[in-house]
Specification:
Elements lengths: L1 E2 L6 E2 L6 H23 L3 H27 L2 H13 L3 H6 L13 H7 L5 E10 L2 E8 L6 E13 L3 E6 L5 E9 L4 E4 L2 E2 L4 E5 L2 E10 L1 E8 L6 E7 L5 E3 L3 E2 L2 H23 L15 H18 L7 E12 L5 E2 L4 E18 L2 E20 L2 E8 L7
Length: 394
Amino acid sequence: MAFCIKCGKQLGNGQICDCLAREKTKSKSISHNHFIGRIKAWPYNSKRILLVIFALIIINLLFAAIGSAITAPVNTARGYFQAKANSNWSRAYGFLALERNESDFINRDSFISANRDIDITSFELEEMYSTSYVAGYFQRGSSIPRMESINLIRTGSRLLFFNRYEVNPNNLIIPGFQIITPPGTTIHFNGIDLSDHRDTDNEAGYFYMIPRIFSGLHEIRAEHPACEELNEEIQIDQSGMHVWVPTLVLNESVKSELAGMTESIFKNIVASALENRSFSSLNLQLTGNEYYNRDIENQYLRFASALFSGAEQDGYKVVDITGFTNKSTQTEFIDSGTYTNIMHVEFDYVYETQRGQDTTEHRDSKGYEIIFTYVFENNTWLLQNIYLGAEYWW
């Protein structure tokens, strides 16, 4: 027979007295209450510090969660394209990483102008990588889906601890863009005079170089002393690195002036050929190109050989030009800066043949076409090429 050593209660074999269990429970209760009591016994300031620490931990966790959500790269990509979809181009420009790279052609106003014809009706954004996205969208009036790549770059920090992302503008900008115009043309691009941007000049025209422009819609104003002023909108995209100015239309007064020059020069050439005068006596206004000049001289020498009779030789004694008809069809000032004048000339002539002491006169009329090509250089029309049709006179 066993007895509890605490209370003396009789116990069965292996039985534990209830008083020991109560003692253990009482001991635990006393231990827990003792801990809470110790906390309650802390000074008031210590309690406040503990609460502040807990509050700061919670605030930091919330700040990290909210900050990460707000500054996530996808928000930049979505905000940028949503601004475009809303036609809020000023806001869309604010997403671009361009702060230190603005110029006359890369700025907020030029970006708004270049995109003014875009009307996005819907879009979807797909993440390719953590900072690379593709926006698929539709424009009003078109059922053809379009795509734009949106690549982000880190440009600093936001809210002190989080990365700041902006849209990389490289796929929106065309570098080294070239505008080619006929010689003597003054160009205004989006209202900016390009005189200081003229890169090279040659017979093919003037070359203007713009370091960087936005792809999109742009305005060109072209002025030339011989042409009507041109005002036109052009669409420029990444597929093209240069543009020829839309063809300029020649002034009617200029075409009339050149037709008059052709008539005057041809009359002088005929008179000189009949007298077998030298080429230099013509005093023609020629280009600085020796190849063209030699060709014009050879044309004259063949023509003079066909007309000049000399003493006691067969040949033309009289050529009386009765009329010119302008057959020119060119209305545009082409890139080479040339104008081709085609004239049908009518004339009466006296042709003499010598047979020993006998001289026979042949009187008749003839007509054929002559071709004079002029080039505009240094604000002057110069003779570049001629066709006198010497073969029609032999």
